[in-house]
Each structure stands twice: as structure tokens, then as C-alpha cells.
Amino acid sequence: MTRLTDDQWQSYETDGYLFLGRLLDDEQLRALQQRIDDIMLGTAAIDYDRTMMQLDSDSGDYGDLGEQTKGHKGATLNYRKIQDLEWDALFLKYIQHPLLQDICRRVYGDDAPVSCFRAMFFNKPAGRGTMLPWHQDRWNDLDRDPQVTIWTALDPATAQNGCVQIIPGSHRELINPDHPSAFLTEEQADTHCSGEPVHLELQPGEVMLLHNWLLHSSDVNRSEGSRRAFSTCYMDATTTYTDGRATKFPIVVGDGSLTVDSAEKVIDPALATR
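Request: output the structure for the sequence above.
Response:
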């Protein structure tokens, strides 16, 4: 599949999420699984100094998570989050899948360049993982909100191992705009998440399209296997920080996009022409 139907798009706009099916074949899936394990173990040929890595908590409490900072933090499979994966050739190829480009064009316009706000690995290690409270994905230090997230299962995602839970239709209202990442208070969660949430259970290689304002959370992993996933947030390439930071968000769709050369290295066209 390289394009969504109008009916699929209408369903997404109504519910705030859409099951896209399986976009990774067995070979692609194994390659991404191996790559992320190699990154965690420190054996991948990547620039760790530019890669944000966060260790999982031992307690399962969100407040006990490790720092989100650049650099490798030891050979372990107990990382919770690894970011900046758009600079890895294997992950970039997937980020630029034709269907994902079609989705970006529907949201941001046919000719608009689209940047990657964050391309990241999420992990709930076997028998542990951290509970993620109810929230909407948004950032009040950006001049506009990113709207599109693609969530890809690298392992089975089940209710037992802490799959994403969502409240359908909750993307139509920004509930807590003053919080840096729109976490809900207990009172707000009781009001907006009192019904039965939908568990987004997926098989490895299957994919969900999510609106960033869709209320979501996840539990700890109570299974004997890991719950690995890859998430990409796409944004309007003209987005800037409101505090004046001159951060460049790498373009992944449209003119000026990152490319993968024959040597499987990520090339930034803006730098290649200098």
C-alpha cells in the first residue's frame, strides 16, 4: 500500500488513529530489530555523540526514568528510549516509505517539505518497563504543533506487555495546553479517560497512524518478552522554536530531504553542496 483511500482518511480524521497494516516484510523487520539491539549494546557504527539515549527506570515509575541525554550509557537491552534515528540509514529508509510520505502530504500539503521532529525507539524490557501517564503529544516551545506520528511494532504489542492505549476521538481538543508535553492531571484523566480505552495490539511489523493530540498512555510490561517499537513524528519543515533556538530539523519528505547513498550513509543535501 502506497496511498490511503478517502474512506481510510475520513476514519482517521474522525477517530484520531488508523491501523495501516503491516508495512515491514520479514527481512526488513529482522534488520530493524537487529539494528536497535546493536545500538543498545554499543556495537552499531553510528555517531553515539549525536544520539539521545535514555535508560528505563528500575521501579516502573515515570519519575524515576534516566536522563534523556546524548551518548551511550552502557551495553544493555534495558534502554527505554533512543532518539535521532533519522540519521541511521536503515531507519531513514523506513521513515521515507511511500505510504508515510503520502500521509505527510495529506496533512502538510503536496509541495511542503516535511521534517522529522523525532524518530525514536521505544522499549519496555521483559518483566519491567515504565508506566506512561495519560497525555497528548505536543510541545509549547514550538511555534506550531507536529500533527502526525507513525508507530511501528518491532515486537508483539499486547495489553499484557504494555501496548499503547488510546481514547478514540480525543484529538479534537487540546486538554492541558500549558503543560510542556500535555500530561493530564488526575482530575483531567478521570474526566477524559473514564471510559474503556482501546488497546492498540499489534503484530511485529504492523503500523498505526496517530494524531499527536490523541490521548494515550501505556502500562508496564508484565510479559517475558520485550515490547520494542519505532515511532516517527513528522512536522511542518518551517516549524521553529519559540525561544529563538536555531535548531535545524532534518527534512525527510520533499525538497532537501535526507538521502541514503550507495554506501548506506545518510546524506544531508544542504551540506553535500557546500
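The helical segments are 6-15, 26-41, 89-95, 98-108, 186-192, 269-272.
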